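Why do we care about 3D structure at all? Because function follows from shape, and shape follows, mostly, from sequence. That is the central idea of this module. The next example makes it concrete: a single protein chain, its amino acid sequence, and then its structure expressed as tokens.
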Amino acid sequence: MYPLKRNRRLRTNDSIRSLVRETIISPNDFLVPLFIVEGKGIKQEIPSMPNYYRFSLDLLEHEVKEIWKLGLKSVLLFVKVPDNLKDNKGTEALNPNGLMQRAIKTVKNVCPGMLVMTDVALDPYSSFGHDGIVQNGKIINDGTVDILAEMSLSHAQAGADFVAPSDMMDGRILAIREALENDGFTDTGIMSYSAKYASAFYGPFRDALDSAPANIKDVPKDKKSYQMDYANRFEAIRETEMDIDEGADIVMVKPGLCYLDIVREIKNEVDVPVAVYQVSGEYSMLKAAAEKGWLDHDAVMLEQITAIKRAGADVIASYFAKDVVKLINS
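And the structure:
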């Protein structure tokens, strides 16, 4: 006897598959990471991230206009700081006329409606490549938090809509929230990297910003004393809930694909938007495999993005954002 219920009826053709599709990707899902450098007329491809670039401020204007025309409405800014401006305390991060502050103003001037989020961490400014102050072979938490709060306030004063602390120091969300509130920036949001793992997938990003930990005596060779152990699951929930209690408006899981179980765990537990960062290593692996002809670039890209959203992501920070939107728009 044939079954009365045939599930394949809902897979018969593209029209019915589209009609009943549970997870839909749109430009509104994306946060576009942008790398900024000093200079003029610079659009510099990152060797380990094919087809992704560092922009000087004048060409950042063109990039932001293109992003907006595609329907992408949010950017996440990172800066590559010259070596001569780096020190152990990230002093340049507090410069009101620093590269990050000028980048914020550039984006807002050329496209006032663009939502601007900013990276808050010391590693781009650190002579040691760490997210915190190095002292006696350790990363100092509380002194670092003080600087992160000042950095966040500086970004807000420059016009940032959200600050995005990516450092994983304890207590930094509360310190940042209090600094913003005390200076009248009550509407400036915080997207916290709440569950950021000590991952091997960050290599190309560190190439892009020249921000890898320095191989120097008495300097930690990795970030495992503050970023999370990738073997841990429940710790991610504790970290995230603490950040929400301290004032985070959006929480993030980083990286993406290897941590989709964490995304779903957190999505099931919290009532704030959950962001996922599809990181540089995930981007570069697909680019390399596609270049070899081993994978269909566009098909795998869409499958990966869909998996991230299906797992529970409300916001996806991805280097594929423009490629995905161009593909779905076509």
